[in-house]
Amino acid sequence: MDNRFQAQDRFADGAQYIGGRLRPGTSGQMHHVIDPATGDKVYTYERAGRAEVDAAVSAAREALPGWAAATPGERSDAMHRFASVLAERADELARAESLQCGKPIKLTTEFDVPGTVDNTAFFAGAARHLEGKSAGEYERDHTSYIRREPIGVVGSIAPWNYPLQMAAWKVLPAIAAGNAIVLKPAELTPFTSLLFAEAATEAGIPDGVVNIVTGAGRDVGEHLVGHPDVAMTSFTGSTGVGKRVAEVATATVKRLHLELGGKAPFVVFDDADLEAAVHGAVAASLINAGQDCTAATRAYVQRPLYDAFVSGVADLMRTVRLGDPFDPSTDMGPLVSHVHRDRVAGFVERARSYATVVTGGGVPQGELAKGAYYLPTLVTGAAQDSEVVQSEIFGPVLAVLPFDSDDEGIALANDTPYGLAASAWSRDIYRANRATREIKAGCVWVNDHIPIISEMPHGGYKASGYGKDMSSYSLEEYTQVKHVMYDNSAVARKDWHRTIFGDRP
Ligand code: NAD
C-alpha cells in the first residue's frame, strides 16, 4: 500500500497544466479520482471549464511561433532530453498509471512506461526526418519545392485505457512537427498526462507547447474541438463519441484524426500451432483487463481445432491471477471503474440467453469484491450477428466461434463495422498471406496479437477511424504540405496569359 502514488500531495496545485505550470480548474465542478482496486477516493480536483481551455489555447498560440521556428535539430535535442526525464521518472509514472487505471504494476513497468520512453526517443529522431518531393523544374521556367509546415495549435482528446501512452501518441508527433498542443485526458485518469507534461517542461520544451486540460468530455472536450484557434483535432476514443467530435470539428473545417473503437478478430486456421494460439488468445484478450482497442475479442477457429481451443483457453483463463495492481505477481487488475465493470457484466448477462458462458462471467468474491474486478470470461455458441460478437465490450471477454472453409473464416473476421486490428494463426505461408491481404484492418498480425512498435503505424480502417498514431506516418498527419513555385523567366507577359488576353501582342 505504501508504494501507491500519492496523488493528492503530488497534484496539490491542481489538475490543469497550462503555460508550463499546474493550476486548479475554475469550473466549480469537483471530480474524485477513484482507485478501481479498492473503491477509495485518491484525488479530488476541480475540473477544467471553458476558461481553462481558452487559457490553454492562448498559451499554445503564444508558444507556437518560437517552437515552429526552432530547427528540427533543436526540437529533436529537447525531445531526447524529454525521453531521458521520462526514463528517470519511470517508477513514478508506473505507480501513477497503476493507481488510476488499476493496471498491474508489471504491465505499467514493462509496457506502458518503456513504450512511452521509446516513443519519445523515436519522435526525437523523427523530428529530423520530414520528407517531401525533391525541388525541381516540373514546369518549364518554374522551380517548385515543398515546404512541410506545422498545422498550428492541435487540440487532442484521449481515453482512459492507456492514459500515458495515449498522451504520448498525441503529443509527440504534434510537437516533433513544430505544433503546440492542448490535450484533454479522460476525467477518470489525469495523473500520467500531467506527469508527462511536467517532464516536457523539465526537459526544456518551452512553456505553452504542451498543455493539459482535465475536464468533462461534452463540455470542455467539445469547446476544445470547436475552438476557432485550434487548427486540428486528434481524438482517440469510442466510435460514438468520435462521430460527435467529427460533427463539431466540421463547423470550423479542422483537420481530423480519429482513432476509434475496435473488435479485433483472431482467426485460427486448422494447421495453426494450437498451444501458441491458446496462449496468444488468453494474453491478447486479457491484456489491460481487455480494455484495449486491439484486444482479441472474437476468435474464429477452424472446426478441427475448435474443441481443443475452447478447452485450452478456458483452462488457461482460470489460472490468471486477479489481485492488487501493486502486487508484482498480479496478472489482471480491476476494470477502470465500477460503472464500466457493470457495463461489461451487462453484455455477459444478456449473452446468457443466447450463448454459453464457459468460464468467468462474474465478479470475484472475498478481498477483491470491493474493487471493479471482473473474471476472465469465455463465451461460446453466440451467433455472428449477436451483441457479444458485434459490439465493443472493452473488458476481459472472449467469444469463440467455429468456421469451416478459409473463405468463411475471413468473411466472418471482416463482418463487423470495425477494422482496427486482427490476427491470423497458421503455419501455411500462403494461407497467412491471404489473410493479411483480405482482412480489412489497420494492423494484421501473423501468429501473434498485440505487440506494437514505435516505427510502425497504428490506426483503423472502417468505423475504427482514420489517421495513424506512432511512426513517420503520424508525423505527416501533424504537418501540412505547401507547394512553393518560382517563375524563372523574369518575363512580364507569360505564354499562358494568352488564355486571358487572347492574341493581343
Ligand atoms: P470515450 O469515447 O467515452 O471518451 C474518450 C474521450 O473523449 C474522453 O477524454 C472523454 O472525456 C472525451 N469525450 C466524451 N464526450 C465527448 C464529446 N462530446 N466531445 C469531445 N470529447 C468527448 O472513450 P473511453 O471510454 O474513454 O475509451 C474507450 C474507447 O476508446 C474504446 O472505444 C476504445 O476502443 C477506444 N480506443 C481506441 C484506440 C485507438 O487507437 N483506436 C486506443 C485506445 C482506446
TrEMBL record:
This is Gamma-aminobutyraldehyde dehydrogenase. InterPro entries: Ald_DH/histidinol_DH (IPR016161), Ald_DH_C (IPR016163), Ald_DH_CS_CYS (IPR016160), Ald_DH_CS_GLU (IPR029510), Ald_DH_N (IPR016162), Aldehyde_DH_dom (IPR015590), Aminobutyraldehyde_DH (IPR015657). Pfam families: Aldedh (PF00171). Transmembrane segments: none annotated. Residues 29-484 form the Aldehyde dehydrogenase domain. The active site is at residue 259. It comes from Streptomyces sannanensis. Keywords: Oxidoreductase. Belongs to the aldehyde dehydrogenase family. The keyword Nucleus does not apply. NCBIfam families: PRK13473.1 (NF010000).
